[in-house]
């Protein structure tokens, strides 16, 4: 499954025009992002790495495939796609980026594409490097955006990201509904939280939120977004940490959560160089997520992208993990519906356990 989503890279803030990729990236081989880390660099001690526990209880009910769709709206729209690119509207700006899956034709005429405010050019490979180009007026690094009434900043970052993954809005709405319906205090853990949109949505819905990301820069951006959204007084803990280490610590400390979101990259690093490799580390982290749930949990939501796997794989992982807990595991894809011709652009796989 391909998408352009990738871990937050070491981009330079406040660089007005050219933002270059500057780190070695995982190499892609046959569709799988291949990390360059050596085996002995991985999280220590490897021997004690958490594995998925064998659980005896009945498997949760299942619902699949479930396709969760983000439709064009006033804040964000996939305007058109085709010929290896996508044209999106992010607030005031029209942005063109490479899109490997868009092997079809563009539906809009060239004049619509020519009106783009920003174009990410470079290697069309999803792991490729490139730079932002502004055909008209040079733009600053950030610009005001909104999601469902929450103000935040869009950003031209390295590796073509713009500070938000709009397809995640399907999960945010679902989570906000669970928080509101619970009619009790709800604690949310957002692992691999990036610029914090999910955390802001959860906090606005009334939850107490813990947001964890390995990147100090991403946490800085998330805090800026909190201020921008006027949610500064809401209870959000912003934590720079390795997701696995943090979850292990929470287990030892007895900290528990009602909802856990985790959206791990195929490959990433914790702040102390801890190596995250999805296929190796996801089962253990999923197991940990179960271990740090409250006695009356609401949901655990996993998204995966840039990996060669089907949602059936993470579906089976989630059902095994939540055996004996009742509820339901729903799995499928997050897609964005294109405005011009109504085609679906798949962005990621997901699987969620819901009580
Ligand atoms: C694509 S983002 C997740 C997007 C986010 N869920 C959202 O919707 O905005 C992946 C994030 O994982 C973080 N990351 C990578 N490796 C990590 C690790 N070992 N521990 C914690 N965070 C990590 C990156 O810094 C990046 O912000």
Strand content: 25-35%
Describe the global form.
globular
Which H/E pattern describes the elements? Answer: EEEEEEHEEEEHEHEHEHEEEHEHEE
Which fold does the CATH topology of the largest domain refer to? Rossmann fold
Query: What's the N-to-C terminus distance?
Result: 28 Å
- Hetero groups bound? S-adenosylmethionine
Number of domains: 2
Q: For the residues shown, what is the average pLDDT? A: 87
Radius of gyration from the alpha-carbon trace, in angstroms: 20 Å
Unreliable residue stretches: 1-41
Helix fraction, binned, reads 10-25%
Notes on the protein architecture:
The chain has 355 residues and is an alpha/beta fold. The chain has 2 domains: 232 residues, Rossmann fold (3-Layer(aba) Sandwich), CATH 3.40.50.150; 87 residues, Golgi alpha-mannosidase II (Immunoglobulin-like, Sandwich), CATH 2.60.40. 21% of the residues lie in helices and 31% in strands. An 8-stranded mixed sheet has the order 3-18-19-17-14-11-12-13, with helices on both faces. β5 and β6 form a beta hairpin. The two termini are 28 Å apart. The structure holds S-adenosylmethionine. The site of S-adenosylmethionine has 25 residues, from α3, β12 and β15. The site of S-adenosylmethionine (SAM) has 25 residues, from α3, β12 and β15.
Secondary structure elements and pairings:
Blueprint: E1 27-29, E2 32-34, E3 61-70, E4 76-82, E5 85-90, E6 93-98, H1 110-114, E7 118-122, E8 130-133, E9 142-147, E10 150-155, H2 169-182, E11 187-191, H3 197-204, E12 208-213, H4 216-228, E13 236-240, H5 243-253, E14 259-262, E15 267-269, E16 275-277, H6 278-291, E17 299-304, H7 311-321, E18 328-337, E19 344-354
Parallel strand pairs: 3-18, 6-7, 11-12, 11-14, 12-13, 14-17
Antiparallel strand pairs: 1-2, 4-5, 5-6, 7-8, 9-10, 15-16, 17-19, 18-19
Helix pairs in contact: 2-3, 5-6
Bound molecules: S-adenosylmethionine.
């Amino acid at each position: 499954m391909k998408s352009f989503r990738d871990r937050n890279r070491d981009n330079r803030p406040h660089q007005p025009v050219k933002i270059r990729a500057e780190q070695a990236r995982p190499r892609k081989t046959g569709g799988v992002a291949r990390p360059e880390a050596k085996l002995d660099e991985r999280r220590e001690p490897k021997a004690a790495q958490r594995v998925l526990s064998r659980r005896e209880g009945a498997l949760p009910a299942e619902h699949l495939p479930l396709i969760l769709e983000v439709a064009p709206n006033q804040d964000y729209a996939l305007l058109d796609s085709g010929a290896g690119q996508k044209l999106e509207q992010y607030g005031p700006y029209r942005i063109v980026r490479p899109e490997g899956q868009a092997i079809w034709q563009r539906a809009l005429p060239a004049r619509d594409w020519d009106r783009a405010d920003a174009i990410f050019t470079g290697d069309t490979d999803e792991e490729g490097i490139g730079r932002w180009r502004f055909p008209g007026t040079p733009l600053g690094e950030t610009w005001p955006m909104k999601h469902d009434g929450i103000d935040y900043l869009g950003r031209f970052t390295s590796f073509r990201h713009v500070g938000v993954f709009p397809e995640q809005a399907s999960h945010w709405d679902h989570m906000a509904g669970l928080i509101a319906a619970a009619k009790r205090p709800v604690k949310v853990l957002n692992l691999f939280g990036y610029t914090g949109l999910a955390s802001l949505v959860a906090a606005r819905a009334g939850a107490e939120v813990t947001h964890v990301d390995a990147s100090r820069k991403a946490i800085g951006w998330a805090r800026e977004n909190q201020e921008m959204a006027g949610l500064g007084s809401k209870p959000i803990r912003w934590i720079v940490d390795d997701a696995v280490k943090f979850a292990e610590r929470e287990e030892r400390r007895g900290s528990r959560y009602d909802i856990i979101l985790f959206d791990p990259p195929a490959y990433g690093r914790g702040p102390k160089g801890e190596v995250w490799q999805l296929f190796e580390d996801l089962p253990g982290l999923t197991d940990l997520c179960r271990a740090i749930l409250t006695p009356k949990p609401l949901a655990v939501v996993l998204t995966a992208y840039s990996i060669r796997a089907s949602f059936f794989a993470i579906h089976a992982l989630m059902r095994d993990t939540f055996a004996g807990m009742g509820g339901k595991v729903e799995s499928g894809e997050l897609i964005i519906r294109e405005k011009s011709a109504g085609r679906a652009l798949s962005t990621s796989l997901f699987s969620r356990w819901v009580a």
